[in-house]
Amino acid sequence: MDGQCGKCPMQKRLCSDPHMEKGPEFCSTLLYEDILKKADALYDQEGIRSFSAAAARQEASCYGEDPGGSGEKVPLKSRIQEIIEFCRRQGYHRIGLAFCSGLRNEARVVTEILESHGLEVVSVLCKVGRRPKERLGLADSEKIRPGTFEPMCNPVAQALIMNEEKTQFNVVMGLCVGHDSLFLKYSDALCTVLAVKDRLLGHNPLAAIYTSSSYYKFLK
What we know:
The protein is of the alpha/beta class. Helix content is 36%, strand content 13%. The chain has a domain of 143 residues: Rossmann fold. Strand 3, helix 5 and strand 4 form a beta-alpha-beta unit. Helix 3 packs across helix 4 and helix 6 runs parallel beside helix 7. The protein is globular.
């Protein structure tokens, strides 16, 4: 039996409620005790411990009291605000921005926002280097527009450039599925994601999930 947290039917979950003693047979908290102990040991390492603590403090700072007096916590901050605050919290000043060429305008605005908060931004778009897709073994028929020159996305170079420029924290914006994977693999600095690519849904991929019982029910 392997972990299946995505199928958990429990309203009160073992992973979140200290009074719970039982969970479904596929509960990851029950199945992976040895691995959880290994994770605990990693969190005891100073670099991971301090980074994780900063992330937890950032999470808590994103909620406030409901002004309506319901007693519920309400969200306070956008993702870009969180990133700026987290950089401040960690003392980062040199930030990498790895973005899709289709989001050039957005990248310009993001750069302006980050710089307005005193951050240095090293930005590299995905088509850097102008390498042809044929270099990857693609046939002309496999291009978006056959018969034309199409540069390949180059996430490995994006990451290596960030490494060369000694960025302290990298922000990923709109890289394609798979290209983002390679950037995250080869980046020396830890990364966060500002936005993911969804060409059809205006870079809001959860729209398909939220409507998977209606407009997007064909996904199931």
